[in-house]
Amino acid sequence: MTRYFKATVLENTALNKHFRLLTIDAGRSTLNAQCIPAPGQFYMLHSNSTYDPLLKRPFSIFKHEDNSLKFLYRIRGKGTICLSNLRDGDIIEVIGPLGNSYPEPEGDFIAIAGGVGIASLLPLLDICKNTGYLFYGARSKDELVMLSEAGALSKEVFVATDDGSEGRKGVITELLKSFLNNLKSEISNFKLPIYACGPKPMLKELSEIAHASGMKCYVSLEEHMACGVGACLGCVVKTVSGYRRVCKEGPVFDIKDIVWE
Ligand SMILES: Cc1cc2nc3c(=O)[nH]c(=O)nc-3n(C[C@H](O)[C@H](O)[C@H](O)COP(=O)(O)OP(=O)(O)OC[C@H]3O[C@@H](n4cnc5c(N)ncnc54)[C@H](O)[C@@H]3O)c2cc1C
Ligand code: FES
Question: Are 93 and 117 contained in the same domain?
Fold first, then answer.
C-alpha cells in the first residue's frame, strides 16, 4: 500500500561534501504493517518549503526503524540541494513506499553497488545478514559511504575505486569478473544470484557478465522520474516485452529483460 504523507525531519547529517543521511519521522500510522518498505522500494520526497523544483525526487529506502525512515543521498542538482538545506523539525512531503522490491535471496548472493547504489542494497544485506558478497565501487575513497556498515552486514567485501585511493584501481565489474573466474576454477557450475544498483555503464557490463555466466541478476534502475506512481510514462525503459515503467513495474528488473540502448 502506498501513502502520501507529511513527515518531520529528525536529522539531516552531512557524511561528507557530497553525501547526506536524512532521517524523517513518518508517524506511527504511516508505517503500519501494509506500509513497511522492502529492500529495493523507494519514496518520492519533496521539500515543502519551495516549489522549485516542483517535482518530488525518488530515493531508495535505506533504513527504517520504528516510525523513522532514513535516506542516503548524493547532492546532484536542485532537488537534492533543497533536501540538503532541510533542518531538524522541517516538514517534507512524501509518497511511498513505491515500486517493487528485490526478490529475497534463498542463500548466499552477490550484491554489486556503484556509488550511491549502496543505498538501495544495504537493506538487502541487512535482512540477509552475512550471506552477501558485496562488491562496492566508487570514484574515490571519499565516495565509499557506509562502507564499514555495509561490510559488517556482508560475508565478504570487495572494493574498487576509479583512482585507486581504496581497494583495487578500476571498475568494480573487473573485480567481480576475477572473483567469478577464480571460483569457476575451484567449483564447477558455481552460481549465485546477483543484485545490483549503480550507474548504467556498470549495469550494462553486468548484463554481459550475467549472460556469460548464466547467473540470475536483478538490477534496480535509476531513471529520472516525474510522478513516481505510474501516471506520466516519464520513466519508461525498453524491455524484451515492450516498454515498462521503472516506478511501477520496477525499479527492480531481471537484467535479461532489459534492452540496453
Ligand atoms: C528508484 C530510484 C531510487 C533512487 N535512490 C536514490 C538514493 O537512494 N540516493 C540518491 O542519492 N539518489 C537516488 N536516486 C537518484 C535521485 O533520484 C537523483 O539523484 C535525484 O532525483 C536528482 O535530483 P536533483 O534535482 O538533485 O538533480 P537534477 O537537477 O534532476 O539533476 C542534476 C544532475 O544529476 C543527473 N542525475 C539526475 N538523476 C540522476 C540519476 N538517477 N542517475 C544519474 N544522474 C542523475 C542529471 O542528469 C543532472 O546532470 C534514485 C533514483 C531512482 C529512480
Ligand atoms: S515517473 Fe511517472 S510513470 Fe514513472
Answer: no
